[in-house]
Amino acid sequence: MSEDELESEPPRHGRMPRRGVVRPIIAIVASSIAVLLVSGAAVAAYLVADLYGDVKEQPPVELESETVLEGIPDIGAMEGGLTFLLVGSDKRPEDGAFGDPEEESAVLNDVNMVLHIAQDHSHVEVVSFPRDMLVRVPECTDPDDPDGDPFSARSSVKINTLLSSGGAACVAKTIEQLTGLTIPLAGVVEFRGVAALAEAVGGVDVCIAEPIEDEYTGTFLDAGTHTLTGLPALQFLRSRHGVGDGSDLGRISNQQTFLASLMRTLQHGGVLNDPVKLYSIAKAVIGNMQLSTYLQNPTTLISIARTLQDVDLSKVAFIQYPTEYTDDFSAVVPSDSAAALNAALLADAPVVLDPTATSNASFGTQAGETPAAPVEPPGETVDGDGVAPPAEGDGVAPPAEAGQALPSDVTGQRADEVRCSTANDG
């Protein structure tokens, strides 16, 4: 059994169906979900039909809040925005490709990410909830026996134990209770899908500030920029012993740098204009996902895609749900700043992160060199003088933005930001 599993609180109920799902890497998909779904809007109808066959291979995730979608012709225009939950677990595929499924798996939802698309489609927030965060859990239906006795409400439970004691629907209900959001859509992703996605996009560039060595995940990277694909990408996203402060909080910051780079690759690397790559990406992710009921309809996927295809990367924020350690450092609990983040999400307001928050955190990443802005075609202008403004350099704060400023201890980054993973000295 891996050290990650030994450190996690054992599940209280072990009756989750044996469905292949993913792990911290699911992070990758939260961002890719946005762009993946964008791809759905560009793929021809007959290809969408083929993808639909992949979707139907997995039984749907049934959410209580999906009833809010009944009678809504375009869910991309839901009042107050649209919220999607992405969950990933430790369970290995049965073929042993990522470790012994019997000895190295615990069905823990070690990655929990919420993707919130604004009602006017002008901004997107992707919030990561630390796996060791203690939460209050409402009464949840047993997914193996929906008509039987439900799992009772509990308190001070690590969020990463909920997949095995109520399924993805219980994770959604718990986050709804925590944040006040309504979550009508969800997906659970497989290990294999993460590696396949990285391959489908042709690799993702990651910036490494100093050499990373993590023998637990087999991640060994020199300082500099690396293009990661397949299994190496998966290992990088799973690493926590080798990055930041060696905790899951450091791993989340590390994942955010990868996700931001992934989105830049998808938007600026010609991927969105390449039907073959788009189809490969959609096939890689959808073929390895278990989706909620409404997402099993291809027209729904396309509807969401249309809400995302024009969002500016500077308006996509990756945010780590603000927490603080318990007295014995065995877990984390939501900090006072969580209320400000919850309020911004409920108000469907864009957020502004403190530009120094992540760099100053013990588990954070550091600023990298932002690439120059794309050259404007002849005859087009960027400002009133017809001259493109200078690109932001390393360490230069972004211009002031309209939005709700979050407290200085709320960490994260924008999708257009380049940040570098820092090594763990321990």
Automatic annotation (TrEMBL):
Keyword vocabulary terms for this entry: Membrane, Transmembrane, Transmembrane helix
Entries under Pfam families matching the protein: LytR_cpsA_psr
UniProt key word Transmembrane helix: yes
Record domain Cell envelope-related transcriptional attenuator: where: 109-267
Region spans: Disordered: 360-426
Transmembrane feature ranges: 21-49
Sequence similarity: Belongs to the LytR/CpsA/Psr (LCP) family.
Entry protein name: LytR family transcriptional regulator
